[in-house]
Amino acid sequence: MAEHDMPAGEWLDQHRGETVVVKFGGNAMVDDALSRAFAEDIVALQQAGLRPIVTHGGGPQISAELVARGIPSEFRGGLRVTSPDAAVVVRDVLARLGTELAAQLRAAGGDAIALAAEPPSQGGALFAGRRIGTVVNGQPVDLGWAGEATTVDAASIAAVLDSGRIPVVSAIGIEEGTGDLLNINADSAAGSLAVAVQADWLLLLTDVAGLYRDWPNRDSLVTTIDTVELTGLLPSLEAGMIPKMTACLSAVEGGVGHAAIVDGRIPHTLLAEPFGTSGTTVTRLAEGTAP
Ligand SMILES: Nc1ncnc2c1ncn2[C@@H]1O[C@H](COP(=O)(O)OP(=O)(O)O)[C@@H](O)[C@H]1O
Ligand SMILES: CC(=O)N[C@@H](CCC(=O)OP(=O)(O)O)C(=O)O
């Protein structure tokens, strides 16, 4: 039987024990009903025997707080140019959102725990990383204290999973060498985390139906794309889709079973089987297959 023809429940049953990294985007998080449905779905996945790890963003909430505190910031190439003052705001807003999300998961019946920059068990950072720049229109751009993860404390996350709890991970990092706060894009952090735990699935929930090849042409939605084609398409992508698709690409190349962008505006989208049905799935090109 094809995977999509299976009766509801049977598909999930066949995927018991699999680790699913789910990233909840800041844009989808602003809707209470969607947040509640998201929490219910995560708990349902755990009850079905899967191992969900929740990561979250908070871009709109961070922007609002920066404006309120009069701290300037802008996005370049989909990433926030981050001053040390802005990084403190990023840490505080993400910590608040992670705590709220964990509370929402507990209200839905799950035993969730929010993990912030420094898990007390380790006295260290969940994400250690380095600062990165980007290139916009051929010009190098300094992003300040925006960065990427170089190491992820997968052991702390696995310990939470093994204890039957749901880890809720905020994407704040610590810069290697200096110990400075590092603002890691949440999609990028989710991808690094998925590789570190060798997840079976990386699901990035967002506020759009998936990747559009020719954005904003609504007829250009992509349902599946392989890593070779995606590598070719990446330089033409804009804004938030750049870190999202880069994360999917490096996850699949790094050994994650499946990566998908999922339409987080659809209530209970996470229970649509197989995962990724309502969005764009990135597939690994089989070895020896011509592009
Ligand atoms: N090619 C594209 N396909 C889909 N969305 C795109 C594309 N290019 C830019 N976007 C924009 O990216 C947004 C999603 O990224 P982002 O705002 O960072 O979301 P999130 O908060 O979920 O991480 C979409 O709402 C859309 O406006
Ligand atoms: C470097 C960088 O851009 N960091 C992001 C972190 C939050 C995030 O990624 O949130 P979303 O998933 O809601 O976009 C930021 O400062 O907005």
From TrEMBL:
Aminoacyl-tRNA synthetase as UniProt keyword: no
Record keywords, A-Z: Amino-acid biosynthesis, Arginine biosynthesis, ATP-binding, Cytoplasm, Kinase, Nucleotide-binding, Transferase
Protein residues bound to substrate: G58, G59, R80, N183
Entry EC number(s): 2.7.2.8
Major localization class: cytoplasm
Source species, domain of life: Bacteria
Aspartate/glutamate/uridylate kinase domain boundaries: 19-262
Catalyses which reaction(s): N-acetyl-L-glutamate + ATP = N-acetyl-L-glutamyl 5-phosphate + ADP
Alphabetized Pfam families for the sequence: AA_kinase
Locations listed in the record: Cytoplasm
Pathway(s) where this gene product acts: Amino-acid biosynthesis; L-arginine biosynthesis; N(2)-acetyl-L-ornithine from L-glutamate: step 2/4
InterPro entries: AceGlu_kinase-like_sf, AcgluKinase_fam, ArgB, Asp/Glu/Uridylate_kinase, Glu/AcGlu_kinase
GO molecular function terms attached to this record: kinase activity
SUPFAM superfamilies to which the protein is assigned, alphabetical: Carbamate kinase-like (SSF53633)
Site (Transition state stabilizer): K23, K244
Sequence similarity: Belongs to the acetylglutamate kinase family. ArgB subfamily.
Chain's role: Catalyzes the ATP-dependent phosphorylation of N-acetyl-L-glutamate.
Protein name: Acetylglutamate kinase
Gene source species: Leifsonella bigeumensis
